[in-house]
Amino acid sequence: MPTPESVLLQSWQHNAQSWIEAVRSGALESRIKVTDQAILLAVLGRQPKRVLDLGCGEGWLLRALAERAIEAVGVDGDATLVDAARAAGSSQVHVANYEALAQAKVDIGRDYDLICANFALLHQDIIPLLAAMNALLAPGGALVIQTLHPWSVAAGNYQDGWREETFAGFQGQWQPMPWYFRTLSSWFNALEMAGFRLAGLQEPQHPQSPVPQSLLMVAEPRG
Ligand SMILES: C[S@@+](CC[C@H](N)C(=O)[O-])C[C@H]1O[C@@H](n2cnc3c(N)ncnc32)[C@H](O)[C@@H]1O
User: Fold this and answer.
1) Sequence-ordered strand ranges (E) for the chain
2) Per-residue pLDDT for the chain (223 aa), expressed as one digit of tens each?
3) Domain segments of the chain: what residues?
4) Which residue from 37, 81, 136, 168 has the least number of CB within 10 angstroms?
5) Is 113 in the pocket of ligand 1 (CB under 6 A)?
């Protein structure tokens, strides 16, 4: 019986090409209008020299950081997306799934000033992965997570649990993706249990939108 986690990663293998087209054509309006800028500013605000982009996808954030002379290393579980990131100019991109990263089975470097995850933490058991990322941070380093805002996507069911994204309204061929919904307090608890303390929280929102487009958290290792 496949686990939701394995179906999740398989969905990215199926959806990789459609995802690359969607991101690179600017088809995802909330990204263009709000969330790309939000994570970029949150990362740049920490003035990092060396950044790890966890679940980097096709690598748009790696390129945006490299353009600003920041050393940007990516890691993603899908080989097609990693190939696309490399082909677009990012030289340091690893293929590894989160399970292997949580168990430190893959060497993706260390001493990062900042580790970011942009809409990339979609599975249930994020605590071991976050704890492993904590160990890769340089002194004074931070974790920046941007994710779906739980209050915007709860759809009347504000409880942790698996949901399904069908990609209805997206152009192209998509396979449904299981993803794990977590409440605001669940995010907070996961960070705490992985050895972080929440240092900042933003709710990026377009002025013409009644709801925030994302939740953005900055976390620092507890001393
Ligand atoms: C919504 S995309 C976000 C990609 C990128 N961060 C961006 O902003 O465009 C989610 C990413 O998480 C990666 N991912 C999901 N589950 C994973 C896992 N178990 N191991 C490694 N990568 C995973 C997918 O391959 C995909 O690239």
Assistant:
1) 50-54, 71-76, 93-95, 112-118, 137-147, 161-165, 177-181, 196-202, 215-221
2) 899 999 999 999 999 999 999 999 999 999 999 999 999 999 999 999 999 999 999 999 999 999 999 999 999 999 999 999 999 999 999 999 999 999 999 999 999 999 999 999 999 999 999 999 999 999 999 999 999 999 999 999 999 999 999 999 898 899 999 999 999 999 999 999 999 999 999 999 999 999 999 999 999 999 7
3) 4-52+112-221
4) 168
5) no
Structure tokens at 6: 């394995």
Q: Is the pTM of this model over 0.90?
A: yes
CB 213 within 8 A of CB 205: yes
CB 76 near ligand 1, within 6 Å: yes
If you search the block for the tokens 């954030």, which residue do you land on? 61
CATH 3.40.50.150 for the 4-52+112-221 domain, yes or no: yes
